[in-house]
Amino acid sequence: GITRHYKFDIKLQNVTRLCQTKSIVTVNGQFPGPRIIAREGDTVLVNVVNHVQYNVTLHWHGVRQLRSGWADGPAYITQCPIQTGQAYVYNFTITGQRGTLFWHAHISWLRVTVYGPIIILPKRHVPYPFPQPYKEVPIIFGEWWKTDTETLISQALQTGGAPNVSDAFTINGLPGPLYKSCSVKDTFKLKVKPGKTYLLRLINAALNDELFFSIANHTLTVVEADAVYVKPFKTTTVLITPGQTTNVLLHTKHHHFPNTTFLMAARSYATGPGAFDNTTTAAILQYQHRHLLSSSTTSATKLLLKPKLPFFNNTNFATIFSKKIRSLANSKFPINIPKRIDRRFFFTVGLGLTPCSKNQNCQGPNNTKLTATINNVSFVQPNTALLQAHFFNQSKGVYTTDFPANPLVKFNYTGTPPSNIMATSGTKVVVLPFNTRVELVMQDTSIIGAESHPLHLHGFNFFVVGQGFGNFDPNKDPAKFNLVDPAERNTVGVPSGGWVAIRFRADNPGVWFMHCHLEVHTSWGLKMAWVVMDGKRPNQKLPPPPSDLPKC
Ligand code: C2O
């Protein structure tokens, strides 16, 4: 591979959406941010220079970072933040991955405006395992708030109440025509030719919402998820959680539709009634005119077609869709799934309550505030980076290695809230020897409200071997696991009122964050870290940090 250089200047920029101008944090003044394009095997160097008054880190979401954990980016996990006026060069090589991923700020809620696509092309002269598209188009979903980011964060953290919803969802940074809009510039427009194949690279960079996406009168063929090829299947709607990426083929119709506008639209999938915004963002799919049609033709009656999206709480659709995603698992793209398991973990993921101090304005019952936990532990962000502490053997006072392998309070899903939902807190990790084969079952507690949690693991792809509703049954359910062609991904929705089982091999030394990709839940503590020890051979060890690694 070759080396590709990028310069990312973090700076403020005035941006107008929903009839209002505000100053936002951007990369190079762009919103959404610039694309990173590389081929499998290339090395990417991103020189990030911080010109704003906030601390910044960037994360290359889904990039495996094999032995390059120093470039992973989550603040206080793998690095201290890049402070005002400082710079840091993220240096990583893309190994064994091709497809769509994305990058985003990984500190506080800064990723609300700081994100952009990562496009990994196959190695030179290696074709896609699907028809070569005529054109490739990134479609990146986001959220837009009229309030400034700081207000947003303090609202989410201090009151511990319901998350405040965004004012709009966006497609490529634009809310689209279904919102009260001030200019046509607020809508993303994709002009297509008839009879062609387009590759849409869908990215959910939204903070707090899983999304349904659909295009009026068109069918989509899913070919890739989280930068792993999948068995192609057709669908009218795609479900995509925050942190997930999905490549779909769009075959355009064979005729011109000079007077028809097809909407592509996305709306929240939320199982909790009223918990989230259920407005709709849209972009326009328009067939290009054949040569220069006279303006009289174009002013003929216009037809606007809207797609039918599943109802916002259609869990049935969501479940069926997730199960359709299967690895290719053929001789060209075999899967490398651990068949035997060294360590098993059972994690409950969900919300809980912690006691509230007097001066806080808490909204929970009996003087409590909402918190979010894994195995009843709400993760406390340290003041220094875990990876440095681990690498230099200075973990004392930074983290403890007693993250529980099972919930602290035995969990039994009954469909109604259990009585004990009080949480403890701490900076706790699980230590894994190099190459440990891990099976992890995550059970959604659905204690308050009912929502699924998109769990994201840094540093690895994992195999989704099973999912179900109600209690996970360790005696019966493993017999039904798919070890033949399970989806391989970096983010999975743990279904409301149910569970998922994943497997991965801890072959990447370092400290790897795992968290709910709903930003509000990450803030509330639904996160933990795995410390993967070095192996014996030189190519199984984490190299020392780069000299420009920021200090806390
Ligand atoms: Cu996309 Cu830890 O994040």
Question: How would you describe this protein?
Answer:
This protein has about 550 residues and is mainly β. It is about 5% helix and about 40% strand. The protein has a 6-stranded mixed sheet with strand order 10-9-12-17-14-15, with no helix packed on it. Mean pLDDT is about 90; it is low at about 295-300. The structure holds CU-O-CU linkage. CU-O-CU linkage binds next to strand 5 and strand 32. CU-O-CU linkage binds near residues 243 and 515.
Q: Which keywords apply here?
A:
binds CU-O-CU linkage, Immunoglobulin-like, six-stranded mixed β-sheet, mainly beta, 5 helices, 3 domains, 552 residues
Which residue ranges are poorly predicted, with pLDDT under 50 across at least 5 consecutive positions? 294-298
If you consult CATH, what is the topology of the largest domain? Answer: Immunoglobulin-like
Report how far the terminal alpha carbons are from each other: 34 Å
Mean pLDDT: 91
Characterize the largest beta sheet: strand count, sense, and whether it forms a barrel.
6 strands, mixed
Q: What small ligands are held by the chains?
A: CU-O-CU linkage
Question: What is the overall shape?
Answer: globular
Q: What order do the strands of the largest sheet run in, or round the barrel if closed?
A: 10-9-12-17-14-15
So what's the oligomer here? single chain
Q: Hey, roughly how much beta strand do the residues contain?
A: 35-45%
Nearest-angstrom radius of gyration? 23 Å
In the CATH classification, which architecture of the largest domain applies?
A: Sandwich
Structural class call reads mainly beta
User: What is the CATH level 1 assignment of the largest domain?
Assistant: Mainly Beta
Fraction of helical residues: under 10%
Put simply, the count of helices is: 5
CATH superfamily of the largest domain: Cupredoxins -  blue copper proteins
Tally of domains: 3
